[in-house]
């Protein structure tokens, strides 16, 4: 039970702290996002929470306890650098798995590193792995001792865990709502045979909010209703930089839905810049 509460606390704290890190990083340091000169929710959840950072903090906490006695005694600096490397690789792995799950299964691209050198499928790249290395070093040298002290204090004052429970109550509601939105986006993505760049989609919603002079949370959430999303896909999908999926996969989906038969000609999809929706070839 003690271990479970520790993991839950780390996940909650990492998710919220990571959200703020991403919020300010994208606003002031990201080469692309900072040009927009505005804050925007960096996650796919509606609230201030990035689960990937929560998972990352749990991984960092566990890896920080790795010890290689022979190396640590003879070369303490090399030992620390090795631990930092393992942490950076773990964060990169979490990032890759999360990104690919959403792209392959939900047809949603949560972030895009394709402009950066050495990227793999636009999901990970050497530059951000270096950022993870720096973050791992900062965590190990500065944050880890303090987090251990905080965890010790919390388990001596269990009443504080009420706030952890409150976080998970809100978190569950947020996940249910956000995944309902993601499912609607997925259906439209399958209909158009695309993968949606989620950040660009939200950017378009913010642009529309600016045009409507309404930046309220209610207005932004209303753009994620089924009708509003369908209108956005029909009229603005080129603005959120959609990608064409593999044509064979799109054909398989149409065959499953009974729209075309296996013996029909292969569907030809327009280029991603085209404003027209994919059309089926029926005989």
Description:
Strands 1-2-3 form a three-stranded mixed β-sheet. The protein is globular. It is mainly α and 283 residues long. It contains ten helices and three strands, in the order ααααβααβαααβα. It starts with a helix and ends in a 27-residue tail after the last helix.
Write the layout of secondary structure elements.
Elements: H1 2-28, H2 51-63, H3 69-74, H4 76-106, E1 108-109, H5 126-156, H6 161-192, E2 194-197, H7 198-211, H8 217-222, H9 226-236, E3 243-244, H10 247-256
Parallel strand pairs: 1-2
Antiparallel strand pairs: 2-3
Helix pairs in contact: 1-2, 2-4, 4-5, 6-9
Find the count of extended strands (DSSP E, 2+ residues). 3
Extract low-pLDDT stretches: 262-283
User: SS-based structural class?
Assistant: mainly alpha
User: Termini, distance in Å?
Assistant: 62 Å
Tell me the β content.
under 5%
Order of helices and strands: HHHHEHHEHHHEH
Biggest sheet strand line-up: 1-2-3
Sheet having the most strands: 3 strands, mixed
Tertiary shape? globular
What's the alpha carbon Rg, rounded to whole Å?
Answer: 22 Å
Distinct helical segment count: 10
Average per-residue pLDDT, rounded, comes to 81
Quaternary state of this entry equals single chain
Helix coverage percent of residues?
55-70%
List its salient traits.
283 residues, three-stranded mixed beta sheet, 3 strands, 10 helices, globular, mainly alpha
Provide a short characterization of the protein structure.
The chain is mainly alpha-helical and about 280 residues long. It has helices at about 1-30, 50-65, 70-75, 75-105, 125-155, 160-190, 200-210, 215-220, 225-235, 245-255, and strands spanning about 110, 195, 245.
């Amino acid at each position: 039970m003690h271990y479970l509460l520790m993991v839950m606390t780390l996940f909650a704290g990492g998710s919220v702290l990571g959200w703020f890190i991403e919020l300010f990083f994208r606003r002031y340091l990201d080469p692309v996002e900072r040009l927009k000169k505005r804050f925007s929710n960096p996650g796919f959840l509606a609230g201030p929470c990035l689960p990937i950072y929560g998972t990352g903090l749990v991984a960092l906490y566990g890896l920080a306890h790795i010890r290689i006695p022979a190396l640590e005694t003879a070369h303490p600096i090399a030992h620390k650098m090795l631990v930092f490397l393992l942490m950076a690789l773990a964060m990169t792995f979490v990032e890759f798995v999360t990104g690919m799950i959403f792209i392959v299964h939900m047809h949603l691209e949560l972030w895009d590193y394709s402009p950066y050198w050495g990227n793999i499928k636009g999901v990970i790249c050497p530059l951000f792995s270096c950022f993870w290395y720096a973050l791992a070093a900062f965590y190990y040298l500065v944050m880890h001792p303090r987090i251990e002290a905080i965890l010790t204090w919390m388990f001596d004052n269990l009443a504080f865990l009420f706030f952890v429970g409150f976080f998970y109550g809100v978190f569950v509601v947020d996940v249910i709502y956000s995944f309902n939105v993601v499912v609607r986006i997925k259906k439209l993505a399958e209909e158009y045979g695309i993968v949606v760049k989620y950040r660009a989609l939200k950017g378009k919603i913010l642009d529309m909010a600016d045009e409507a002079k309404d930046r309220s949370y209610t207005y932004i959430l209303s753009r994620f209703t089924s009708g509003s999303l369908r209108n956005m896909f029909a009229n603005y999908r080129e603005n959120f930089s959609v990608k064409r999926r593999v044509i064979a996969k799109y054909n398989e989906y149409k065959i499953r839905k009974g729209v075309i038969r296996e013996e029909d000609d292969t569907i030809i999809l327009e280029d991603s810049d085209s404003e027209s929706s994919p059309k089926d070839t029926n005989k």
